[in-house]
Amino acid sequence: MKVSKRHPASFRDPAGFVFEQEGLFYRQVNQSYAPHYDKLMQSGLYADLVKEKKLLSHTETETVVADPSRWYKTLLPEQLAFISYPYEWCFNQWKDAALMTLAIVKKSIAHGLILKDATPFNIQFIGTDPVWIDTLSFETYDETKPWIAYRQFVECLVAPLLVARHLTPDLQKIMMVYPEGIPLKIVAKLLPLKSRLNLNTLMHIILPSAVAGNKKAVSNNIPVFNKQKLLNIIDNLKTFVESLKTGNESSVWNNYYEETVLSSEYVEEKMILLKRWMQELPVQTVLDVGTNTGYYAQMTAAAGKSTIAVDADTACINRLYETAKKNKLTRLLPLTIDITNPTPAIGWGNQERTAFLSRTRTDLCLALALIHHLAIGRNIGFDQMAELFSTIAPWLIIEFIPKSDPKITLLLENRADIFDDYHEESFSHAFEKQFAIVKRQALTHTGRIMFLMRRKDNHPEI
Amino acid sequence: MRHFLLYIDPGSGSYLVQAIIAAVLGGLFYFKQKWIQIKSFFGRKGKQDQTDNPEHHEGL
User: In the CATH scheme, what is the homologous superfamily, with its name and number, of domain A256-455?
Assistant: First the structure.
């Protein structure tokens, strides 16, 4: 008998669950959910949403059954290459996810269904497109009832945007602390006074936070609802989300290429070299660490490689996300991740939402103009870097920045130079413990050196 | 408080909130419609005033 393993994050919903069998992810639909599932499929909603790329497509299969006692159907969904979590998204990714959720609700209502949950963990980005992945989130719509997932939507998809808008752009990471949504009482306390003088904030944040915990508020004297009232609320939420924009768009790194001391000759020389090396490599997937505005990640994505581009600076990622959307770079997934403090594993048994490094395996890792920030900015040794990069990918393209570089002078301006070991020999020595250096090419304009490395075969990851 | 709330129907608090919001939005919609009516009433009148002004007639 084939072994099927239930996905550790799939236990909340009695309608069904996700399981893995022989490397493929399936979703079982339980008997109890049968009427809703049939309605989703027969009403035309499924077809419409899949056509609009808002819902992950699936095929039904009879051959795989995980739990026969409750079984109704087994679905084989379109397989996802990579899972990202909301606290790794930039502001505009979050905003697009919220708007897509509202669009799904509206379309569902038109087909006599509604979303029964509205958590961003049900959304994945396929390149730059947000897609709803939970097929079992739909239920038959009762016109006399308001939206059951309203509070969840506000706490999970509006509140993080709002605190990010009014406090600091990367505050969406607060979802790591409140994966079930930020309690509105806390949101209300966080928001500055002037942001409350907004009708939408008053209605959707301040009012519910005042009502929460009030026993009288849950009495049965609630007037009957109707479809028009709900559509008004959905439209109003849409206007609210659309009105939210990132506060301060400029950041430390945002204008790197425009204002930097680095010459365009340097950038172009590096690009030509990178393109040449890439052509020779058997890689399909790329992780670009410290991508900045993603100049090189855009190139790898345009060349057809599925590229995850990460940077600690969420303003850079926000800008890259917009660029990728504009240029239709569908293979580029920008994420706000600080490689010196990557996303930890959270949730039940620490298995529900996995750590970034344990779910990220690519063919190639790019570490361009990065190591001086790690070594001198964060005191991370070359040995540690080599070890980390070797867990990510069998191929590594890494740029060595010599100590004479003006950027390092800048980094050392306000601190003691305790980095006697920072030189090419110690760099190569450390990396050669994990990698074989395949190519070494100095960049003529700067004295920076590009390395192409291949992980040694005795590495346990291979 | 929040944990207490989890033991009752998680939707019920938000039902009241949605009822209030729906009422507010309904009220706003009503006044907006009235405002548009009032504006269009005066707007039309304004237009008539303009066309009564010979300087705005074509051919003059």
Answer: Vaccinia Virus protein VP39 (3.40.50.150)
